[in-house]
UniProtKB/TrEMBL annotation:
The lineage of its organism: Bacteria, Bacillati, Actinomycetota, Actinomycetes, Micromonosporales. Transmembrane segments: none annotated. Pfam families: AP_endonuc_2 (PF01261). Signal peptide: none annotated. GO terms for molecular function: L-rhamnose isomerase activity; metal ion binding. GO terms for biological process: L-lyxose metabolic process; rhamnose catabolic process. This is L-rhamnose isomerase/sugar isomerase. Its EC number is 5.3.1.-, 5.3.1.14. It is an enzyme of class 5 (isomerase). PANTHER family: L-RHAMNOSE ISOMERASE. Residues 67-249 form the Xylose isomerase-like TIM barrel domain.
Length: 388
């Protein structure tokens, strides 16, 4: 039997971090469709993140991206965020948007360019010291397009050296999160292409280095929940970048393409006792809302994660264990599917009502007038966008 009160407590305590760049304009390589009311400054992105938190109650942190969110005074930005009810979350680095990085950043054959890229990682740690952020999130676009273009092993050595330098700069409770990605922008070989590569580097670095799983960064049919289970067992899972993929790194709303996969991932999280924020996993979104209104899409994404989590929490673990141990394949699968097929929306509506929130966050946002207000207020200046 599932303890419903415990399920509700777990859902109330859940935390999901939203990314500053998801509030900004974004698009594909073909076109960015600008939207009215889009933030022009890091402060306006934070205000939008605070709005998502206001309606969902479970999104109290916003991840920044440097230099897209570069400001003169990070302490002031941090207190601005706190005044709005949110914290600054992970600091994301950018060593992919500079001409110098054509042949790579920390793995570039040129030592001067490697120095520049590594210095950027150190700069991000300085920013963490000012924002009080725990997590340095690293994603490297580094890789090569043609066989023979550069030495695969030397590039691993260069990567290890840069990671070591950054890692050794961490203090207090700071952590390094290393994200992997199968391909893109490099098409033949990426320097951190998979969880195994990230895991091996993190293992070499030490206990403050853990893997970040971006759900959109795998080959089709990859069993992501297996990766989750394995890394949890090794105590090397540090974060998620949640999003949906139909084809490649689509960055669509999490739970849109494959809600069943999201449920299976969240089940492994629950099974591993890793849902509680105290466990230390950062559940982040990494999405781009190219054609839909951004704030309600992010609210919807947060709700999709909550729904998958609620279903995962509803799995009757005792019944599942009994079926598994007696080798009852069909019964074990039925227990699992029963939880997945439960309509958890009424339960989540209750959890929200208990927390003093509107049970329908998207409708509440639409009725709030915030959308109309940002469209009216945010005129002039330059809208922020992916890369701006
Ligand atoms: C890139 O594909 C990765 O998903 C990154 O995590 C992220 O989208 C990018 O660094 C924007 O911050
Ligand atoms: Zn990502
Ligand atoms: Zn990505």
């Amino acid at each position: 039997m599932t303890d419903l009160a415990a399920v509700k407590r777990a859902l109330t305590a859940q935390r999901i971090e939203t990314p500053s760049w998801a509030y900004a304009n974004s698009g594909t390589r073909f076109k960015v469709f600008a939207q009215p009311g889009v933030p022009r400054t890091p402060e306006e992105k934070i205000a939008d993140a605070a709005t998502v938190h206001r309606f969902t109650g479970v999104a109290p942190a916003v991840a920044l991206h440097i230099p897209w969110d570069k400001v003169d005074d990070y302490a002031a930005l941090t207190s601005y965020a706190r005044d709005l009810g949110v914290e600054i979350g992970a600091i994301n680095t950018n060593v992919f948007q500079d001409d110098d990085y054509k042949l790579g950043s920390v793995t570039n054959p040129d030592a001067g360019i490697r120095r520049k890229a590594t210095d950027h990682l150190l700069e991000a740690i300085d920013i963490m010291n000012q924002t009080g952020s725990r997590d340095l999130k690293l994603w490297f676009s580094d890789g090569i397009n043609y066989p023979g273009q550069d030495d695969l092993r030397d590039r691993q050595d260069r990567l290890a050296a840069a990671l070591r330098e950054a890692y050794d700069r961490l203090t207090g409770d700071q952590r390094l999160l290393l994200e992997y990605k199968l391909f893109e922008p490099a098409f033949y070989a990426t320097d951190v292409p998979d969880w195994g590569t990230s895991y091996a580097h993190c293992l070499e670095l030490g206990e403050r280095a853990t893997v970040c799983i971006d759900t959109g960064h795998h080959a089709p049919s990859t069993n992501i929940e297996f990766i989750v289970a394995f890394l949890l067992r090794q105590k090397k899972l540090g974060a998620f970048d949640f999003n949906s993929r139909f084809y490649a790194d689509d960055d669509l709303m999490v739970g849109a393409a494959d809600p069943f996969q999201l449920f299976r991932i969240m089940y492994e999280i629950v099974r591993g006792g890793a849902l509680d924020p105290a466990y230390g996993i950062a559940f982040m979104l990494d999405q781009c809302h190219n054609i839909e209104r951004k704030i309600p899409a992010i609210i919807r994404s947060v709700m999709n994660v909550q729904e998958a989590t609620a279903k995962a929490l509803l799995v009757d673990r005792d019944a599942l264990t009994r079926a598994q141990q007696s080798g009852d394949v069909l019964e074990a699968n039925a227990v699992f599917m029963d939880a997945y097929n439960t309509d958890v929306r009424p339960l989540l509506a209750e959890v929200r009502a208990d927390a003093g929130l509107d049970p329908d966050p998207v409708a509440a946002y639409k009725a709030s007038g915030y959308d109309e207000k940002i469209i009216a207020d945010r005129v002039g200046g330059t809208q922020a966008g992916w890369g701006a």
